[in-house]
UniProtKB/TrEMBL annotation:
InterPro entries the record matches: Acyl_CoA_acyltransferase, GNAT_dom
Segments forming domain N-acetyltransferase: 110-252
Gene3D superfamilies from the UniProt entry: 3.40.630.30
Full protein name: N-acetyltransferase domain-containing protein
Length: 255
């Protein structure tokens, strides 16, 4: 940009007849390049106020260290699992696009972590988009040992939460979710496995939409059994205009 301004000032100080043609061509090419670069920057800049649910960037972590929870006083590691092998459909697509453009796609590991404050805003937005408005998972910060958040390169691609003390003998899985494009790669399976292992000694219960056959199959593989079919269970959560199924199964995994 500075070079363009210098060239523009130089041309302005010379009579038109004395400016070589190659200088004019170079000036126009340089101006076109600057305009393209400026337009590209405007497209890729993501602000906090206007981000897509698939591209919510988390704050960078400068330090990853263990921390102690206030609920059970457990010391939690900064990572539950770092998975560098799993390739969900979204990553396969990105890799194929890059290969067709003769570019190398740098793949990052899928990282499973406990819930942290930096995750809350991104997860609330995902819940509002994929479940219903008004969900706030901030309360889960009180017992992060019963949570799992899946990141890919500072983007939340999945999460799961368990409420450990619904009753003295029951725990309850409130949410378990994987972004479209990242499904059918074992992410939800591992999150469910992790949540079950955080609360041994109690029955684990949950509600699942009657039309969510893939989730029902997953829960069945972990030995969850249906106890009740509840009609219009989601009426109090979903907006009236929603076309999603409003009925639910109540499932239980016995200890």
């Amino acid at each position: 940009m500075e070079l363009l301004e210098q060239l523009k000032n130089t041309i302005a100080n010379i009579d038109d007849d004395n400016v070589p043609s190659w200088v004019r061509r170079y000036y126009h090419k340089l101006a076109l390049t600057c305009r393209k670069n400026s337009a590209h920057l405007k497209q890729v800049v993501v602000t906090d106020e206007n981000v897509d649910e698939d591209c919510i960037l988390l704050e960078k972590l400068t330090i990853n260290c263990p921390f102690t929870t206030s609920y059970t006083f457990r010391t939690l590691k900064p990572f539950i699992l770092i998975d560098g092998k799993t390739v969900p459909p979204r990553l396969e697509l990105l890799s194929e696009i890059c290969s067709r453009q003769h570019r190398r796609y740098k793949r990052h590991p899928i990282v499973y972590k406990y819930l942290q404050k930096r995750h809350v805003r991104a997860i609330n937005k995902l819940c509002s988009t994929h479940f219903w408005p008004g969900i706030d998972i901030s309360e889960a910060l009180e017992f992060p040992e019963f949570s799992v958040v899946v990141e890919y390169h500072r983007i939340v691609i999945g999460f799961g939460f368990l409420v450990p003390d619904v009753t003295h003998s029951d725990a309850y899985i409130s949410f378990i979710f994987t972004l479209p494009g990242w499904r059918r790669a074992g992410i939800a399976r591992y999150m469910l496995y992790h949540l079950i292992n955080t609360c041994r000694g109690k029955d684990i219960t949950l509600h699942v939409s009657a039309s969510n056959t893939s989730a029902l199959l997953l829960y069945q593989q972990f030995a969850f059994k249906p106890e009740e079919f509840i009609q219009n269970f989601y009426d109090k959560f979903m907006p009236p205009t929603s076309t999603e199924c409003r009925h639910a199964f109540f499932l239980r995994l016995c200890k």
